[in-house]
Amino acid sequence: MENDVVTELDDIDKNTSQRIVPSVEDYKNILLFKPAETVTDEAVMVTLQAALKRGIEQYYEIEEVEIAAEPLPNTGKRNYLLFYEASEGGAGVLNKIALERGELSRIAKKSLEIMHYDGDMNNTNDQCVAACYNCLLSYYNQSDHAIIDRRNSTTKEILVSLMNSEIQNNHSGRASGSVSDNENIQYNYLINNQWKADEYHRDKKTVIFSKHPGEDAEEYIVNHGFRLVVRDKNE
What we know:
four-stranded mixed β-sheet, alpha+beta, 5 helices
């Protein structure tokens, strides 16, 4: 009878297989660009995408692989331009564009310079026709090389308009409470009509709570580009 007894030790050397599915969670800043008027000319959006991406890279002196750009909803219908941080950690430049006055204007100006135009929109490089690797062409936009055209008048008009524009932050009525004198700190900031932060630092896009608002709130806050800070009660 003793030989019929099976203990846990009898299975210890048996080979067993178990399926493991690794996963990773990451958060990146994105910037969605939509022209004020619908653009139906594919060449306009393709060239604008290349110009703004190159402008961001050179203005902030970041590597080409740190920022990616894609048309939305797809390459067949380019209604929007999506820019996002492609490298681990992120450079944080997209937040600056959205929050700091004058950044988009300076990027547009840099984009026009890259396209071989001076302040009076004069062509500064007669050797470059539609585009070259010194301006808008790159290894990463090879599929668009046949379409990119720095001479496109509508693209230049949009960039000139951006160069003469200024960003205005719009919180869509989601916030309530008082604003400090320096207009950078808002108190009792209501997020998504659900969670009230003690402070919202507009220039840093940071929300501060006296106690953690919960996992759902944290996920929403981070996914919408905010930085969540829980203040130490002893401070």
